[in-house]
Amino acid sequence: AMEKSRPLWDNPLQFVFACISYAVGLGNVWRFPYLCQMYGGGGFLIPYFIMLIAEGMPLLYLELAVGQRMRQGSIGAWKIISPYLCGVGVASVVVSFFLSMYYNVINAWAFWYLFHSFQDPLPWATCPLNSNRTGYEEECEKTSSTQYFWYRQTLNISPSLEASGSVQWEQALCLTLAWLVVYLCILRGTEANGKGRGSGRRPAEPQREVVYVTASLPYCVLIIYLIRGLTLHGAVNGLVYMFTPKLEQLSNPKTWVSAATQIFFSLGLGFGSLIAFASYNEPSNNCERHAVIVSLINSTTSIFASIVTFSIYGFKATFNYESCINKVILLLMNAFDLEEGSLTADNLNEMKDYLMATHPQEYMQLLPQLKNCSLEAELDTAVQGTGLAFIVYSEAIKNMEVPQLYSVLYFVMLLMLGIGSMLGNTAAILTPLTDSRVIAARFPKEVISGVVCFINCMIGLIFTMEAGNYWFDIFNDYAATLSLLLIVLVETISVCYIYGIRRFEKDLHTMIGRKPNWYWKIMWAFVSPLLIISLFIFYLTDYILTGTLQYQAWDATQGQLVTKDYPGYALAVIGLLVAASTMCIPLGALVTFIRKRLKRENVSTV
Amino acid sequence: YVWDANEEYLFKAMVAFAMRRYSSKNTTQISNVLLCNVTDRVSFWFVVTDSSKNVTTVSGSEVEAAIRMNRNRINSAFLLSDKTLQFLKITSTLSPPVEPSTPVWLIVFGVVLCLIVAGIVFLIAAGIQQRKKKNKESTERENLEEKGEVTVTVENGIPCETLDLKAGHINGVFAADDERYTSL
């Protein structure tokens, strides 16, 4: 049988860039700073690095080595290791499919904000007026203008999951555009050499120019923001707050679990994208060195991004603190008819005591309106996820000079990060599809990619409905988490114990030229599987203990988030999401077993 | 600037001006405007008297309407704004931000959308062209092979040409492929 020559990366640098572009995603920007803040500031780096060494690097190396050795997408690669493991590849593809369904909505939101950045003033800088123009809209008054812009004008969010509402056409347009962009980027992807009859010409290259851009542009923007952020007034407060280690958090088990989870998902293990990327490598590529490089770059980027984020935090917190103080000063001056300039931020406390002593009754009347402004409280408002990216950052941007420029830069960076990760996801879905001869022979690659993008776009319209953000949260929290843990666990155990670690060693020796040393072997065989099992147990016990699952809903009348319980059908969807991918593994083994049995029976009857 | 008697005089003058413009009679004098309870905060009460009607005060609603009509003149006389010069009980109507006829974001969206679609169409067309060329060449090759003039040397099912490229190692011992085929 003729072997189809597989397209290759131009050079190892392209492969590294592709991995970086895939691994460095939105999670580095919006999840790591939150975790750092919640779990002890500078002290969080200790469990983070321990987990990096214990599970991050070994598992990344494992996946890259498997892809490079088997030279197939995830389904084919695991089939080669053992026919009973075809379910693992299918589970990876299913999880990638779920991820690509909801992840591109983030890119749609980034496009929306990007397009709105070309106005002066920025639309989220001020509240819109109410109908008789005497004041601002009620909902906007209760909360801030940036939150109003996000919840009302972008999402038009409904009060609960049950009230679905209609599809927002503006968001649907942005989503369509996001999918068109993804389609454009993957179009220049791998082309199967259909005839393979010694065409001699160089085969088409995998998505190359795109990864150079999507990998390096975010760094440029982050550096610009770093310089801008550090020169902002009050940035130092945020940095000091972040880096003061609160070492007592190290005794909290949640700290270690969060560090492990963050490393795990940040590297994008278990989706099959890494296997797909590595399968386009030359067999002699030094994937060990690349694994170390990519994981180190990923972690450094997280820390770098959190420096930027915390300087922005500090700026925003200081700004809010100072306006709070100014409001209090104004209130006191108006109430007691004091001269302008007699109350300043420095003498505020003394003056408050003095006023309380001299005019006790009026002061008591005024007391409920006097907010106790505290810089610590402002810094403590830890936000993660879409809240951080779209609310906190846009609030900080609107207070800078030339906000349009920074806004455009920031949202372009978000787009690059998001699209880079989307390319990895779609590679994980498309590589097995184009590898399989059944489909690839009948349809050209453009049609397959187009169909996948179209289906995802149509399903993604659910997330543009009024209740769409709640469904988004469901997918974000449950579609990938548990399933990935299980997938990677099965991967590690199968490579170490079913394929055999000695055989794997030998393969690596033929590929790279040297055997993996004892550190890698111990990690693969013992430490990483144990870590994953303990993570798994932790999540299950956590769920069982808390009982029901809840979500945050936006209450327009109060202007803040409230906690609500998921309705029954939402819980069913969650269960379906987790089951759909995890059941693939045992189902795959069962199907292979039955097929083999049938074959054996056919043979024996003959 | 410091709030002193001159500024008070200017204020009285502005209120008188507002009353004159509003009611279009030229009888209001600066002396008709009385300020009282001036505090350090620079806040005070003021009334407008009507000298033609036996020193009675003009009704508050009239004064309010007059000031509302001339608000921006009064503001600019003091180099202040609606936020810094506050008349209690007179709420200002806020001006809405300028809205262009087509929202700006749609324009940018349209531009980006056209670029992306153009890119996609271009790439698909290039791909189709490339495939047509490949088909033509491989059919030409097949025709030539049927005539037996071109042989594609094959090693273990993999054409030798691709072996010469990156994929695969060529074992030096057996590399003397020229000698394999005896010349005719």
TrEMBL record, chain A:
TM stretches of this protein: 12-32, 44-62, 83-103, 169-189, 210-236, 256-280, 292-313, 408-430, 451-472, 478-501, 522-541, 569-594
Record key words, sorted: Membrane, Metal-binding, Sodium, Symport, Transmembrane, Transmembrane helix, Transport
GO CC terms: apical plasma membrane
Superkingdom in the source lineage: Eukaryota
SUPFAM superfamilies: SNF-like
Stored PROSITE patterns: NA_NEUROTRAN_SYMP_1, NA_NEUROTRAN_SYMP_2, NA_NEUROTRAN_SYMP_3
Pfam families in the record: SNF
Compartment annotation: Membrane
Membrane topology according to the record: Multi-pass membrane protein
Family statement: Belongs to the sodium:neurotransmitter symporter (SNF) (TC 2.A.22) family.
Protein name: Transporter
Automatic annotation (TrEMBL), chain B:
GO CC terms: extracellular exosome; plasma membrane
GO biological process, one term: positive regulation of amino acid transport
Lipid bilayer topology: Single-pass type I membrane protein
Transmembrane segments: 104-128
Keyword terms of this UniProt record: Cell membrane, Glycoprotein, Membrane, Phosphoprotein, Signal, Transmembrane, Transmembrane helix
Compartment(s) where it occurs, according to its Swiss-Prot or TrEMBL record: Cell membrane
Collectrin-like domain boundaries: 1-184
Pfam families in alphabetical order: Collectrin
Keyword Cell membrane listed: yes
Identification of the protein by name: Collectrin
Natural source organism: Gavia stellata (Red-throated diver)
